[in-house]
Amino acid sequence: MPTDNTRNTPTDKPRNTLANESEHLDRADQLAHVRERFVLDPATVYLDGNSLGALPHAVGERVARTVAHEWGELGIRSWTESGWWAAPERVGELIAPLVGADQGQVVVGDSTSVNVFKAVVGAIRIARQDSAARTELLVDEATFPTDGYIAESAARLTGCTLRQVPAAAVPGTAGPTTAAVLMNHVDYRTGELNDLPGITAAVREAGARSVWDLCHSAGALPVGLDAHGVDFAVGCTYKFLNGGPGSPAFLYLRRDLQDRFDSPLPGWHSHADPFAMAPAYEPASGATRGRVGTPEILSTVALEAALSVWEGVSIEAVRTKSLALSDHFLRCVRTYVPEASPHGAEASPHGAVSPHSAAGTPSRAGETAVSVRSLTPEEHARRGSQISLLCEPAERAGAVMEALTARGVIGDFRRPGVLRFGFTPLYTSFEDAEHAARVLGEVTGGPR
Amino acid sequence: MPTDNTRNTPTDKPRNTLANESEHLDRADQLAHVRERFVLDPATVYLDGNSLGALPHAVGERVARTVAHEWGELGIRSWTESGWWAAPERVGELIAPLVGADQGQVVVGDSTSVNVFKAVVGAIRIARQDSAARTELLVDEATFPTDGYIAESAARLTGCTLRQVPAAAVPGTAGPTTAAVLMNHVDYRTGELNDLPGITAAVREAGARSVWDLCHSAGALPVGLDAHGVDFAVGCTYKFLNGGPGSPAFLYLRRDLQDRFDSPLPGWHSHADPFAMAPAYEPASGATRGRVGTPEILSTVALEAALSVWEGVSIEAVRTKSLALSDHFLRCVRTYVPEASPHGAEASPHGAVSPHSAAGTPSRAGETAVSVRSLTPEEHARRGSQISLLCEPAERAGAVMEALTARGVIGDFRRPGVLRFGFTPLYTSFEDAEHAARVLGEVTGGPR
């Protein structure tokens, strides 16, 4: 696709202006000191916190202590003496304020997929108890795939039908036959923020139950679960909560629904008296009802230690910086990287790309230059904490991300042609954002 | 209950004989060197490997490297470069030979409870596909509770009925309406080993599907999953496999059933092409089909490191030593501890105990002496790798275990009155067994 290089060619002036501006923004950043709580490679700009958050300093020591002392020395006694048994609720309480939940409603454990299953089946059961006519499960059609797969299984096992609808269509679609609605708070491809308050209200108005997947919003922006009357929520903890690879997910069970939550995975850790070893299941009260089996303690204590970086940090301040960072990054991208025509691309973030649809322009290296355009909404109210750039030609996106990685700029790539850059205000600076955009300009063969 | 102290009063002769015998057995033990692979407190005899295995030396370094280097330095790249993505299958292959499974059939991840759910629903679906008349799920009535709770949920969600039967009655009960049978290989309370080959054959003969819970046998004795034609199996890895607190469970999917395995938890990690991010679910082939969501990597790599202790160790040698250890322990207990009358107790391992059923005899400390009797079968073919002693009076069992712990003998206690001692041949010596029995004699107020 021919690009209009004239409007993107920077002179030294915008380059210096952007670098100066970055310095200024970093000096004024009230969260700048939090960066010291993380292990960061000075040669790398890590913009993949939306996939795997950076390592907090507190984790290594904590995990080592759990292995050597709690397991190695205390052994089995650590289930009580080192607080292993109560870890899922205790760590849940650390996450609760970040997603706007009062105490006693969040528990960690299992993967996001398993928690989606618990929440969706639990939501359907409550809705059908209210009205047997509620036999439909709605899922937003841009959902992260695993939510859709698990929703399909939940629908099948509970005798419901599954229907995928665009997020914006949910309010007009939810009705007297809707049992539950499973929504992603942030679209993992485009970074678009869905309207949680509005959709939740519409679902409630329709008499159905809401389940929100917060994987790409927990730790990145205020969610307000209690304030907006969300029924169930799940989320992972290894993205903006920095819990480490595959750290346990969390489940939010709204307080006034807990006694009605009828788990499809009633393992012994959710029993009212697990050590009675009773043959009959009797569910625990509170968020404990969302537990299943024995929690993976090493991963759980790593998450607990990781959450210590939030000391003195408000999620509102994180949101303010997040928007400023992604604004800054977009500004820099527009200066440094050829911009693709919004009309020329045949690509869509959710569909396939014709490999011959974009010709590009030759770069200095003799390769076809790559142009990009942002898939992420400009409007703050519709933006999460990542910027997704669609490459043209799309089939070059993987190579672009490899080139970025080789130069120390870490983002990720999602087929068919999307480059994703996550902004974690706890450790990302404005200079990082500017640097990443500049390197992107270099590797795409754009003006430098 | 009055005890016949005369037959239990040791002279110096049996005491010396037992101590000498322990020394002799330890010198002849071909697995003695494996003990060095574990972190063990010399002041403690750890007989709770049936609940939480001891810490292998290899774990600390491996977990530290995963945190500092793989997460801290490589970050997201570790999903491929450090082999995180393939860890569930890779670690499964390390467990496979210990449970008699050829390659490509074992995958780790999730808790035992979650895996019981996958296996039972998967087994029911295959059975019902074979015959719609198969609508009953059998569970052994002495099951570990979580299996029963999860089985009930699986039955409810698939429209089956659940029936609890004694293990011995399964062959006579399984028939044309049986869909699946969920069995515990070893009874967690009594240590009794169920007849896996015989029951599996009977279930197959009835046209139903077998699901075995190997929590208390994997790593303790040969299981022979392939040889005996087991359909599905699950097990935890934190007992005799020493994987650490809450380390991920494993799932065995028999090769010729893998293509028919229809998971109730079809998360994206079980997709044929997870990074296609396709809206439609298409299951992977092989054991990968048993995966769900993102695996908890720190707990998974700890397990992988822990499994290195098996280098050069055969499960057959472990079984031989296990039986010798528990035989030796029982001999020592009979010498050192007052034996309860098998007829006098009103207690049953699965039921309540009348607190007034056993009077006991006064000990030196003025307390009521406690007598014990073994609930574990004498016959080798019916014994797992733990010895369960029923205390009389039963309500003293908790205090007895506390006194043992205070003296450095670690076992555990299960209501109403069972003391459990697990024997892990990889790190337990015959001297450990003798010492534990001697201390038990002291704290029960028996002859010393």
Automatic annotation (TrEMBL), chains A, B:
List, for all copies, the residue spans of the domain called Aminotransferase class V. Answer: 46-330
Judging by the UniProt lineage, the source's domain of life is: Bacteria
**Which cofactors does the annotated protein need, by name?**
pyridoxal 5'-phosphate
Q: What InterPro entries does this protein's entry cite?
A: Aminotrans_V_dom (IPR000192), Kynureninase (IPR010111), PyrdxlP-dep_Trfase (IPR015424), PyrdxlP-dep_Trfase_major (IPR015421), PyrdxlP-dep_Trfase_small (IPR015422)
- Which stretches of sequence are listed as region Disordered? 1-20, 341-368
Q: Which NCBIfam families match?
A: kynureninase
Q: How does it assemble?
A: Homodimer.
The name under which this protein is listed is Kynureninase
Task: Report the source organism.
Answer: Streptomyces iconiensis
